[in-house]
Each structure stands twice: as C-alpha cells, then as structure tokens.
Amino acid sequence: MNITIVEHGTFGLRLARALSGHHRVHLLRSQESTPDELPADIGPTVACGQTGERSTGLVVTDAISTAFIKADHVIFTPPVEYGGGHHRYNELLCEVILQDALTFNATASFALQTLVSPGFSDRLSHEFRLPRLVHAHMREPLPQDTYRHADRGQIVIGGPADAANAHAALLRQAFGDRFRSLQVQRPESEAVAVLAAQLDLSVPSAVRQTTVYARQHGLNARVLIECLGLLKPVSGSFAASSGATEPAPLGARTRLAF
Questions:
Q1: Domains of the chain and CATH, by start
Q2: How many other CB atoms are there within 10 angstroms of residue 159's CB atom?
Q3: Which residue from 7, 14, 42, 68 puts its CA 20 to 30 A from 231's CA?
Q4: What is the DSSP code string of 141-152?
C-alpha cells in the first residue's frame, strides 16, 4: 500500500517508521523542517527520496505531487504542540493540504490524527465530499493503579465503520495489539484528543472536567469518559444523548483495504 503521512511531528515519524516495513510510506515534511532534523537512523539516501520503486520503505519529501499522486491512504499528523488555543493552525493546515491532495489524487482515503475542534472533520467531510474521512486519536495506557483497573490504552476513531476498522488495523499493524479500539462519532474522537492533551487524566477531577466540556459542546460525557480510560468499561452503561451512541469495539483482525 502507498501511504502518505503529512506534517510528521514525533508521532508521525514513529508511525512512518513502523509502517515502512510493511508499506511504501511518503513522509511529507513541513517547510520549516530539514533533512538535518531527521533522526540519524533515517539515512541521507532515504531523506532525499532516492529509494526507487520499492514496494516498501520510507521516503521523506517536500514535493506535494510526489507525496500524493499514488497514495492509497493519507494521514495528517501535525504535532500536538501546534494546537494551542482553538487549534486553528492544525485546522488551516489540514484544510489547505487536503485541497492539494485532492488536486493530485481524488481516490485516496484520509485520516486526521491531530488536535482539531469538535465538528471540524464533519465539516471537511461534507465540504470535500469525503464520507469515509476519519478522525483518530491514540492514547497511551494509564498507570495500572489509576482508578484501580488495568488500562490498555485506546485507539479512538470517529467515522464510518469500514473506514474506522481499516485505519485501526493500520495502527495496530504499526504499534501492536496493546491498544483497545473504539468507534465513536467524529466530534467525540476530536474531543477525546483535545481533552487528552489538556487534562491530567491521573486525577479524579478529570471526570468532572470532561463532563463540563461535553456539556459545552453537546457531546455524550459517558462516551468521552470511557474513551479517555477514566472509568472501567461496563456493558450497557452508556447513556444515549445528543445523538451519540455507545463506543463500538473495532475488530481485532481487519483487512487493510482503503
């Protein structure tokens, strides 16, 4: 598969490295980054994009056409530190680069894995006619003594079930099966990413702060609390409100088909 990772940051670089052993990965770097800023284990040949037509491997490029023209799946991963305030940098970047990507490739699938305001992905999906657009967030496991239950960490994905399953399978291929996968609505996934960046999830007040945030944005607080790993999952414990549904576990074995 041809995968393009945009505006890499720390997470995007980890993801690109992990997937490059299975797929051909293009890492589209920002204008501010240079090959000198890449880790030493990514050699200059790869950094210059001179890998020929191998079916797997990592190519670092700043050429938009090279990155997108053959892509099957595009993942936006702007660094979290760019997401201050209302995350306008990430949103503007995603919107502008998405326009460029569609100019060269109208058939690729897209995933946003960054901080954006709740509802942003829905707007992009409608505006650019991308019904299979997903937003994803990966949360590292909490300490085992937090809230007195073991936590595997979460892959929270908002979007249609088929696209969410496919992207979750890709993330599991990169990072293994130590994450529990949940499908939610796109605004809920976006809210989980924002709260995970802003809150200290190890303190009890995180539950109250999550509830307040959910009310402010018209989201289901129980869904957000579960996706953040703040409560031990209990079957049937999610209250449906604002059109939200219980997070659906994603299949552990899914064919990578975008």
A1: 1-116 (3.40.50.720), 137-258 (no CATH)
A2: 29
A3: 14
A4: PPPTTGGGS---
